[in-house]
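Response to reviewer comment R2.3. The reviewers asked that we include at least one raw input/output pair. We reproduce the pair for Glyoxylase-like metal-dependent hydrolase (Beta-lactamase superfamily II) here without editing.
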Amino acid sequence: MLSLGVVNVYFLDTDEPGEGWALVDTGLPWHFSAIVREARRRYGNTAPTGIYLTHGHYDHAGSAAALAAYWSVPVFAHEAELPFLTGQCDYPPADPSSCGGWLSLASHFASTHGRDLRPYILPLTEGPQGWEPIPLPGHTLGQVGFWQESSRTLIAGDALMNLKVDKWLPRKGLSWPPPPFTTDWFAVRKSLERILALEPQTLYFGHGEPLTELAPGELAERTEWFAIARAGRYVGDPVRQASDGNPIVAPIPPDPTKRLTKALVLGALATSAYFLLKNKQNS
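Raw output as returned:
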């Protein structure tokens, strides 16, 4: 695992020595250099067999195109993610009303644009050697995790996080996927049930530190209090996928806080710039 601030990427060795390695997720666009440096440290000039995405959000697929071009390797994602990764459509808009704290504020400005990873993107049919793709939809329509039976290890993507984001400062703690960008809470619950049925001993996340040496039933105990989000535009109207791959999104109610939030942020920036300039003139 390579932690890149609040997002993680994974370097997977295959079961057979000398048979190569694979990369799971690619962080944000400016993480390209850090990932390449870590890959060289681990594997020299050996390119991965492929890049595997848990899903296509900007913080997981941000460097995918650049890394695929650099290594000349394919990028794999679940079929339901392909419309968002081939330039066909954008992800559904964020829902700031689904939580409080800094993430709610940040979601006003975060990108939900799709990406165009052609010609590198391919539908996911199997995982890296020794790893099985496990559908874990809810956060996105086609999110997957990667499961290694021999070690009972699961890379869960954003099906869960070990990071709480509902306050003004992020803090460690097991929680649901990032609420503003999660579009089907009923599927989130079913994906959690699928994770619990696997009974992983090690659980890796897209955000937060891993959980290791989990005892049987421990994860179920730690998530038994989890409840479907009580507020938010996607709670009662989850996103569905049309036959052409585009997301079907219920009409979005007006967000009265959006303009106010942007005005407050711009006002704060303008005020800071004014005082900085005034202090500089006085000095």
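The chain has a mean pLDDT of 90. The chain has two domains: 2-252, 254-283. Further pairs are available on request from the corresponding author.
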